[in-house]
Write the C-alpha coordinates for this entry.
Amino acid sequence: MKSSERHQGPLSVGAAAARFGLAPHVLRHWEAVGLLAPARDPAGRRRYGAADLVRIAVVLRAKEAGLPLDTIRLLTATADPARRREAIRDEAAALRARIVAARGTLGADEREALVERIRAYQQSAAEQVGKLRVQLSRAEDFEATLRARVTPPPTPSPAPATSPTRRD
Protein backbone atom coordinates (compact mmCIF):
# COMPACT_ATOMS: atom_id res chain seq x y z
CA MET A 1 0.00 0.00 0.00
CA LYS A 2 1.37 3.39 -0.97
CA SER A 3 1.40 6.28 1.45
CA SER A 4 -0.65 8.24 -1.08
CA GLU A 5 -3.41 5.64 -0.67
CA ARG A 6 -4.06 6.32 3.01
CA HIS A 7 -7.73 6.38 3.79
CA GLN A 8 -9.94 8.34 6.13
CA GLY A 9 -11.89 5.44 7.60
CA PRO A 10 -12.56 1.74 7.45
CA LEU A 11 -13.01 0.25 3.99
CA SER A 12 -15.59 -2.21 2.74
CA VAL A 13 -14.43 -5.63 1.58
CA GLY A 14 -14.71 -4.50 -2.05
CA ALA A 15 -12.72 -1.31 -1.49
CA ALA A 16 -10.03 -3.10 0.53
CA ALA A 17 -9.73 -5.83 -2.11
CA ALA A 18 -9.54 -3.28 -4.91
CA ARG A 19 -6.79 -1.41 -3.11
CA PHE A 20 -4.61 -4.52 -3.46
CA GLY A 21 -5.88 -5.70 -6.83
CA LEU A 22 -7.71 -8.66 -5.32
CA ALA A 23 -11.20 -10.02 -5.68
CA PRO A 24 -13.34 -9.60 -2.53
CA HIS A 25 -13.77 -13.38 -2.19
CA VAL A 26 -10.00 -13.64 -1.54
CA LEU A 27 -10.28 -11.49 1.58
CA ARG A 28 -13.34 -13.47 2.70
CA HIS A 29 -11.38 -16.71 2.26
CA TRP A 30 -8.43 -15.35 4.19
CA GLU A 31 -10.85 -14.45 6.97
CA ALA A 32 -12.32 -17.97 6.88
CA VAL A 33 -8.87 -19.56 7.30
CA GLY A 34 -7.95 -17.21 10.16
CA LEU A 35 -5.62 -14.74 8.46
CA LEU A 36 -7.87 -11.71 8.79
CA ALA A 37 -10.39 -10.58 11.39
CA PRO A 38 -11.94 -7.34 10.16
CA ALA A 39 -14.35 -5.42 12.35
CA ARG A 40 -18.04 -5.45 11.49
CA ASP A 41 -20.37 -2.50 11.25
CA PRO A 42 -23.84 -2.59 12.92
CA ALA A 43 -25.26 -4.21 9.77
CA GLY A 44 -22.64 -6.98 9.95
CA ARG A 45 -20.58 -5.81 6.96
CA ARG A 46 -16.82 -6.19 7.09
CA ARG A 47 -14.89 -2.97 7.74
CA TYR A 48 -11.13 -3.03 7.09
CA GLY A 49 -9.05 -0.57 9.10
CA ALA A 50 -5.41 0.42 8.77
CA ALA A 51 -4.16 -2.62 10.72
CA ASP A 52 -6.18 -4.93 8.47
CA LEU A 53 -4.66 -3.32 5.37
CA VAL A 54 -1.16 -3.86 6.76
CA ARG A 55 -2.07 -7.49 7.46
CA ILE A 56 -3.30 -7.92 3.85
CA ALA A 57 0.02 -6.53 2.60
CA VAL A 58 1.93 -8.96 4.84
CA VAL A 59 -0.13 -11.92 3.58
CA LEU A 60 0.46 -10.88 -0.02
CA ARG A 61 4.21 -10.59 0.54
CA ALA A 62 4.30 -14.02 2.16
CA LYS A 63 2.29 -15.51 -0.73
CA GLU A 64 4.75 -13.95 -3.19
CA ALA A 65 7.49 -15.76 -1.28
CA GLY A 66 5.63 -19.02 -1.95
CA LEU A 67 4.36 -19.67 1.56
CA PRO A 68 1.07 -21.54 1.97
CA LEU A 69 -1.76 -19.92 3.90
CA ASP A 70 -1.37 -22.31 6.86
CA THR A 71 2.25 -21.26 7.31
CA ILE A 72 1.37 -17.59 6.92
CA ARG A 73 -1.30 -17.98 9.60
CA LEU A 74 1.23 -19.61 11.94
CA LEU A 75 3.83 -16.90 11.26
CA THR A 76 1.39 -14.06 11.86
CA ALA A 77 -0.18 -15.68 14.92
CA THR A 78 2.99 -16.26 16.93
CA ALA A 79 5.28 -13.66 18.42
CA ASP A 80 7.94 -16.28 19.23
CA PRO A 81 10.90 -15.71 16.88
CA ALA A 82 12.15 -19.29 17.41
CA ARG A 83 8.78 -20.70 16.34
CA ARG A 84 8.78 -18.46 13.27
CA ARG A 85 12.29 -19.59 12.29
CA GLU A 86 11.25 -23.21 12.75
CA ALA A 87 8.22 -22.72 10.51
CA ILE A 88 10.35 -21.11 7.81
CA ARG A 89 12.93 -23.90 8.06
CA ASP A 90 10.17 -26.52 7.77
CA GLU A 91 8.76 -24.76 4.71
CA ALA A 92 12.22 -24.53 3.09
CA ALA A 93 12.82 -28.24 3.73
CA ALA A 94 9.45 -29.12 2.20
CA LEU A 95 10.26 -27.00 -0.85
CA ARG A 96 13.65 -28.70 -1.25
CA ALA A 97 11.97 -32.09 -1.05
CA ARG A 98 9.46 -31.10 -3.75
CA ILE A 99 12.31 -29.93 -5.99
CA VAL A 100 14.15 -33.23 -5.54
CA ALA A 101 10.96 -35.16 -6.23
CA ALA A 102 10.24 -33.13 -9.35
CA ARG A 103 13.74 -33.70 -10.68
CA GLY A 104 13.39 -37.43 -10.14
CA THR A 105 10.06 -37.83 -11.92
CA LEU A 106 11.59 -38.00 -15.40
CA GLY A 107 13.65 -40.95 -16.47
CA ALA A 108 16.73 -40.53 -18.65
CA ASP A 109 14.80 -41.54 -21.78
CA GLU A 110 12.02 -39.06 -21.06
CA ARG A 111 14.53 -36.27 -20.40
CA GLU A 112 16.35 -37.03 -23.67
CA ALA A 113 13.04 -37.05 -25.58
CA LEU A 114 12.14 -33.67 -24.09
CA VAL A 115 15.56 -32.25 -24.94
CA GLU A 116 15.15 -33.47 -28.53
CA ARG A 117 11.72 -31.85 -28.77
CA ILE A 118 13.13 -28.60 -27.45
CA ARG A 119 15.96 -28.74 -30.00
CA ALA A 120 13.42 -29.35 -32.77
CA TYR A 121 11.40 -26.35 -31.57
CA GLN A 122 14.55 -24.23 -31.51
CA GLN A 123 15.44 -25.31 -35.06
CA SER A 124 11.92 -24.59 -36.28
CA ALA A 125 11.97 -21.19 -34.59
CA ALA A 126 15.34 -20.35 -36.17
CA GLU A 127 13.98 -21.29 -39.61
CA GLN A 128 10.91 -19.15 -39.08
CA VAL A 129 13.07 -16.21 -37.98
CA GLY A 130 15.12 -16.58 -41.17
CA LYS A 131 11.98 -16.58 -43.33
CA LEU A 132 10.62 -13.56 -41.50
CA ARG A 133 13.89 -11.69 -42.02
CA VAL A 134 13.67 -12.33 -45.77
CA GLN A 135 10.05 -11.13 -45.80
CA LEU A 136 10.99 -8.04 -43.81
CA SER A 137 13.81 -7.24 -46.21
CA ARG A 138 11.45 -7.57 -49.18
CA ALA A 139 8.87 -5.38 -47.47
CA GLU A 140 11.48 -2.72 -46.75
CA ASP A 141 12.65 -2.82 -50.39
CA PHE A 142 9.04 -2.51 -51.58
CA GLU A 143 8.42 0.41 -49.24
CA ALA A 144 11.55 2.17 -50.54
CA THR A 145 10.42 1.62 -54.14
CA LEU A 146 6.99 3.07 -53.39
CA ARG A 147 8.49 6.03 -51.57
CA ALA A 148 10.76 6.76 -54.56
CA ARG A 149 7.79 6.64 -56.96
CA VAL A 150 5.48 8.75 -54.83
CA THR A 151 7.92 11.37 -53.63
CA PRO A 152 8.35 13.99 -56.33
CA PRO A 153 11.91 14.81 -57.26
CA PRO A 154 13.13 18.05 -55.78
CA THR A 155 12.51 21.00 -58.07
CA PRO A 156 15.60 22.98 -58.85
CA SER A 157 15.50 26.44 -57.43
CA PRO A 158 15.66 29.20 -59.97
CA ALA A 159 19.06 30.74 -60.54
CA PRO A 160 19.39 34.12 -58.95
CA ALA A 161 18.84 36.92 -61.42
CA THR A 162 22.00 38.70 -62.26
CA SER A 163 21.93 42.32 -62.98
CA PRO A 164 24.16 43.52 -65.72
CA THR A 165 27.04 45.39 -64.34
CA ARG A 166 28.33 48.33 -66.22
CA ARG A 167 31.93 49.00 -66.58
CA ASP A 168 32.92 52.44 -67.36
About this structure: The beta strands are 39-40, 46-47. The two ends are 91 Å apart (CA to CA).
